[in-house]
């Protein structure tokens, strides 16, 4: 299947459409062109009636996705206009995964960090190998996580674990992730692909209308109540991106040193 970039592989195998984040030198960190390619590939998969499930995964055996590509931030995520463009493109990709017209599984083998966890949370379920780790290091970089992604996290693990994940910005083991309900299933590294394929077969044999109705009704039942203050959340998010700490966070990552944050 064609994909606009070789950093996002689209492959059809039987009734499964595979989306593979392919930037292994950077632990499959997602660059702008990869975010842009996600909706295009999903569109192609959904136009194919033979594809019954979609699996998202990372190339190699070290990472699912280690977040957005920080090495691009200076170029693509520094001025207010570029930050907005970046947010629009990545948010569209997350939402497009969440709205996929097929059941989606994130197959996680290794690091599942930041935007990588956001991608996994946009899928209907997450199946991981032992030794995989999970976290959102936004507070180590001084940036803010979008409110839709935050809501997906809260809907999945509840508010207290969501706060623990954000406040500590640490990495959690697969056992901790299972305990929080962040992931659905764990297998050995060797058994992972086969396990995921068997899940896809199980789903494909079931009545498609029932499965897709369940997806829609579950998603609708998670919809935000109307008193959610989106403007307040967006103002706080923009403040993070405009802060000195965000510049310090990305510089410190590139210089491989600990950031010194000032809270402004
Ligand atoms: N963006 C860009 N490059 C990244 C990256 C990211 N999100 N995550 C990892 N990389 C790069 C590293 O810079 C390194 O590049 P180098 O070989 O040129 O030095 C390479 O991938 C391998 O990563 P490394 O840090 O050496 O592996 P590790 O096993 O020691 O640590 C992580 C793995 C995931 C803990 C660590 O790479 C990390 O903290 N990455 C950033 C995660 C993050 O903050 N994501 C959120 C972004 S919004």
Write the CATH homologous superfamily of the largest domain.
2-enoyl-CoA Hydratase, Chain A, domain 1
Number of strands: 9
Shape: globular
N-to-C span:
46 Å
β-sheet strand percentage: 15-25%
Secondary structure class reads alpha/beta
Largest sheet: 6 strands, mixed
Number of helices: 12
Task: Sketch the topology as an H/E string, one letter per element.
Answer: EEHEEHHEEHEEHHHHEHHHH
Predict the CATH topology of the largest domain.
Answer: 2-enoyl-CoA Hydratase, Chain A, domain 1
> What is the C-level CATH assignment of the largest domain?
Alpha Beta
3D structure, described in words:
By secondary structure, the chain is an alpha/beta fold. It has two domains: 8-203, 2-enoyl-CoA Hydratase, Chain A, domain 1; 206-254, no CATH class. It contains twelve helices and nine strands. The strands form two sheets. A six-stranded mixed sheet has the order 1-2-3-5-7-9, sandwiched between helices. A three-stranded parallel sheet has the order 4-6-8, covered by helices on one side. Helix 1 packs parallel to helix 3 and helix 3 (80-98) packs parallel to helix 4. The termini are far apart. Residues 26-27, 29, 66-71, 111, 113-115, 137, 141 line the site of coenzyme A.
Short description:
By secondary structure, this protein is an alpha/beta fold. It has 12 helices and 9 strands. The chain binds coenzyme A.
